[in-house]
Amino acid sequence: NIDSSSNNADTSSIDVDAKNEDGDGDGDGGGDDRVRERRFKDEEHKMDQVNVMDNDKNKPRPRGLSQLYKFVADPPTVTMQRLKGLTTGGLPTFADITGNFGGASIDEDNWVQQLHDVPAYKRGMSFSTGTVLEYGGDSNGDRTNRTVQMAFVGDDTWVDLYPNQFDDSHPFPSFNTRDLDTVDDGCLLHLPRLLKAFGYQPEPGKDQLEDERKLEMDEGSEKASVPVKSDQRQHQQQPFYEVLVSHFLGVDHVGHTYGPHNEHMDKKLGQMDDVLSNIFMKIDNAPPSQCQVAFVFGDHGMTEQGSHGGGTDEETGAALFAHYSPGCGDMGPSLSFGGGNGNDNGSGNDN
């Protein structure tokens, strides 16, 4: 759970769960897989070009900082129980393990519901433009006009637990442990668009709005036929994602199907490297006034046979990798917002 009020920068978070479970077929991905990966890399190139233009060419572009930790999961190390533990802070038991095969929404206190219910300004989120963006919609509680939103793509277990909390949700079926690619292909399909809207962006000028319209036309967007308004009203009405959860599943499914040491695992890990490179570039290029963080972790470990569910060291051991933008300052080993060294990040925000 992130408390943005304790920092001088607006905070946003990307959760990337690079899972350990099962999959289908030979894992070669085919033409569609290559198209999605190429599109993902094209987005990375466009993002890099835009930020090079925006920055002073005489100054090196600042990069974010990272922390790596050992992640120890509580048994039972199955997906449903692990997600319940990660979002509620509770300790699921073997008694409710049957929920992993059908699932029910969560009633306990959890950070997903908190972000959904609590207006952004009450959590310390304000912006240099002076605009306060909040979850609450209008004075009557209408959520249709919300500007700050949460998005999800990946393993449909999240939607079993949180069916109505995500504003932009793209679940993909996870139960077939021999399907190596469906969930990951879905993530690759939607992540470029979701990342583009991640984190609050300053109002663009007319030229930038025109560039965005051309980009939409290039991508075959249905919005391409809608003219972009130069008065920036359209930008003000567009949402941005404060939290983006992306749950990949291929690594997990390869483990179940082929074990952890094989060519299919090598390919999946290479695919994850490409995805994370793009995400970290987005974090590195965050506006200086914002603190954006990517948390990368597995929800459990894996045995040498590729299974999990119990409480052995192999099954409970994983990793937590945090990469945060220059606007966060030095968060230190405790990942405390506001800087581990107590330095102001110079954003000028009163947040």
- Sequence of strands across the biggest β-sheet: 2-7-6-1-5-3-4
- Arithmetic mean pLDDT: 74
Number of helices: 10
Q: What would the principal axes of the Cα set say about the shape?
A: globular
Structural class call reads: alpha/beta
Weakly predicted, low-confidence segments: 1-9, 21-29, 45-55, 127-146, 221-236, 339-351
Distance between the termini: 17 Å
* Fraction of residues in helix: 25-40%
**SSE string, helices as H and strands as E:** EHEHHEHEHHHEHHEHE
- What radius of gyration results from the CA coordinates? 20 Å
Q: What fraction strand?
A: 15-25%
- The total beta strand count reads 7
The largest sheet is: 7 strands, mixed
Explain the overall architecture:
The protein has 10 helices and 7 strands. The chain is of the alpha/beta class. Helix 4 (157-161) links the parallel strand 3 and strand 4. The radius of gyration is 20 Å and the shape is globular. The model is unreliable at 1-9, 21-29, 45-55, 127-146, 221-236 and 339-351 (pLDDT under 50).
